[in-house]
From TrEMBL:
The lineage of its organism: Bacteria, Bacillati, Actinomycetota, Actinomycetes, Kitasatosporales. It holds the Pfam family CMAS. This is Cyclopropane-fatty-acyl-phospholipid synthase family protein. It comes from Streptomyces lannensis. InterPro entries: CFA/CMAS (IPR050723), CMAS (IPR003333), MeTfrase_dom (IPR020803), SAM-dependent_MTases_sf (IPR029063). Keywords: Lipid metabolism, Methyltransferase, S-adenosyl-L-methionine, Transferase.
Length: 431
C-alpha cells in the first residue's frame, strides 16, 4: 500500500508542531495534504536524508538543487506558505537541536530516520560553494566569489536577462511595460541623476555586460571605464562595445575597484555591486570612490538593503544565498550605507527606494528562465538552473513583503566652498 505521503505529513507536522500548508507527494505516488494547495514533491528517500543531516534551510536547499525535492503548482504560493512555516520561524539546525529535547520531536525524528533509509547522507550538490579558509573580501576571495556567480555562461544570462543584459533592478513605468523598456529607463535615470555631459569621464564599477557603459557613451557622449572581476562579462562587454562602434569612448577592464588609479572622474556609477563589498570593507570602498571623483563629482550607488535588526551583531548572511548564489555577499540597512558614504566625505543628496520595481524585475527574469527551461539547464546544469529559479522567485517575494529593499543613493563630493552643483529641485533629474 502506498502510504509514504500521509506518514511523512504526520511526522513533519509532529516535528514542527504545526499543520503543513502544502500537500506532500511522495516517491511511491501517494499524496496527502490540503486540497488545491501546491505540492511538495519528495522524489526519493535521499531527500529525507539531506533534511535530517542538515535540518532547516541548507538541507531543504540541497534537496531542491539536487532535484530530490520539487514543487508542483505555483512556485510563489508554495514559497510564501513554506516561508511562514519554516524560514520566518527560524527553524535552523540550532533551534531544531534545542527542540529535540522534546520527546514528541525525538519520536518524529526517529520516524523520519526510519523512512529515510541508511545513512550516511549524500554529498552536497556540485553547485554548492566549496569554502576556502582565509579572510573575506580580499582581492582573491572577491574574484572567486564573483566568478562563481557570473561566470556561468553568457548564453544562460541572455535567457534570464533578455536583450538588455542588465542584471539589476529595472525602473518600471507600469506593470505593462516590457523588461527592455524598464531597463533602458533605469539606465536613463542613472545618467540623469549623474548629470552626464559630453566629454566627461564616467567610471562604472561592476560594469556587468557593459549595458550602462554603452548607454552612457552612446546617449550622453561621455568616455567610460567599466570594471568587472568576471572574465566572461568582460569578453561580452568588449564585443558589445565594438559592435556599437564605441571603442574610442568605452574601455572595459578586468580590475578590482581598489586598483583603479587613473582618476579623477566626473561621475561614478556603482549598480548592484556594493552588496559584494562587505561591512568591514565598506568604508574603504566609499573612500576609494570618493578619492577617484573630482570635486563636484557625483556617485550613484544602487544597492540592495535589508531591514535593520535590534542586535546588528547577530546578523548573518542567508545560508542559501551564501552557499549557492552570492558567496560572501552582505546586505546592510540603508541607514548604514548612507552613514558610511558620509563618513567617507560624501554629501548624500538623494535616496530613492525602488523596492517594488525589483519585485517586478525578478518575476520577469523567472518567467524568462521558465520559458526556456530545457535550454537553460543544458547551458549550465539542472542544479544551477534550479538555484537561479529558486533564488529569483524567493527574492521577488522578499521585495514584495518588504523584507529587503533596493535604493539608489546619489552622493556628491562637494568642494570646500559647499557648491554641490545640484539644482534646487533635483527630483526632475532633467527629464
Amino acid at each position: 500500500m502506498a502510504d509514504a505521503a500521509p506518514r511523512l505529513k504526520s511526522l513533519v507536522e509532529q516535528l514542527l508542531g504545526a499543520p503543513l500548508p502544502v500537500r506532500i507527494r511522495a516517491w511511491d505516488g501517494s499524496e496527502s495534504g490540503p486540497p488545491g494547495a501546491p505540492a511538495l514533491v519528495v522524489r526519493n528517500r535521499r531527500a529525507l536524508r539531506r533534511l535530517l543531516w542538515k535540518p532547516g534551510e541548507l538541507g531543504l536547499v540541497r534537496a531542491w538543487v539536487s532535484g530530490d525535492l520539487g514543487i508542483d503548482g505555483d512556485l510563489y504560493t508554495a514559497l510564501d506558505l513554506l516561508a511562514g512555516l519554516i524560514w520566518e520561524r527560524g527553524e535552523d539546525a540550532r533551534s531544531l537541536s534545542q527542540a529535540a529535547r522534546d520527546p514528541q520531536v525525538r519520536a518524529a525524528v526517529r520516524g523520519l530516520a526510519r523512512m529515510a533509509g541508511p545513512f550516511p547522507p549524500p554529498p552536497p550538490p556540485p553547485e554548492e560553494v566549496r569554502r576556502v579558509r582565509g579572510h573575506l573580501h580580499t582581492r582573491r576571495s572577491d574574484r572567486r566569489a564573483i566568478s562563481h556567480h557570473y561566470d556561468v555562461g553568457n548564453d544562460f544570462y541572455e535567457i534570464v536577462l533578455g536583450p538588455s543584459m542588465v542584471y539589476s533592478c529595472a525602473y518600471w513605468a507600469g506593470p505593462g511595460s516590457t523588461l527592455e523598456d524598464a531597463q533602458r529607463d533605469k539606465l536613463e535615470l542613472v545618467c540623469r541623476k549623474l548629470d552626464l555631459k559630453p566629454g566627461q569621464r564616467l567610471l562604472d564599477v561592476g560594469c556587468g555586460w557593459g549595458s550602462m557603459a554603452v548607454h552612457a557613451a552612446r546617449e550622453y557622449g561621455v568616455s567610460v571605464v567599466g570594471i568587472t572581476l568576471s572574465q566572461e562579462q568582460a569578453v561580452f562587454a568588449r564585443k558589445r562595445v565594438a559592435e556599437e562602434g564605441l571603442t574610442d569612448r568605452v574601455e572595459i577592464r578586468v580590475q578590482d575597484y581598489r586598483d583603479v588609479t587613473d582618476g579623477p572622474y566626473d561621475a561614478i556609477s556603482s549598480i548592484g555591486m556594493a552588496e559584494h563589498v562587505g561591512a568591514e570593507r565598506y568604508l574603504g570602498y566609499a573612500r576609494d570612490l570618493y578619492a577617484l571623483l573630482k570635486p563636484g563629482g557625483r556617485l550613484l550607488n544602487h544597492q540592495i538593503a535589508r531591514r535593520p535588526q535590534k542586535d546588528e551583531s547577530a546578523y548573518s548572511v542567508d545560508v542559501f544565498i551564501d552557499a549557492y548564489v552570492f558567496p560572501d555577499g552582505e546586505l546592510a540597512p540603508i541607514g548604514s550605507t548612507v552613514t558610511q558614504l558620509e563618513r567617507a566625505g560624501f554629501e548624500v543628496r538623494d535616496v530613492e527606494s525602488l523596492r517594488e520595481h525589483y519585485a517586478l524585475t525578478l518575476r520577469r527574469w523567472v518567467a524568462n528562465l521558465e520559458a526556456e527551461w530545457v535550454r537553460a539547464q543544458r547551458l549550465t546544469s539542472p542544479g544551477r538552473a534550479r538555484v537561479w529559479r529558486l533564488y529569483m522567485a524567493a527574492s521577488a517575494l522578499s521585495f514584495e513583503h518588504n523584507r529587503i529593499g533596493v535604493n539608489q543613493v546619489l552622493a556628491v563630493r562637494s568642494p570646500e566652498s559647499g557648491a554641490s552643483g545640484m539644482p534646487l529641485r533635483a527630483r526632475t533629474w532633467g527629464g
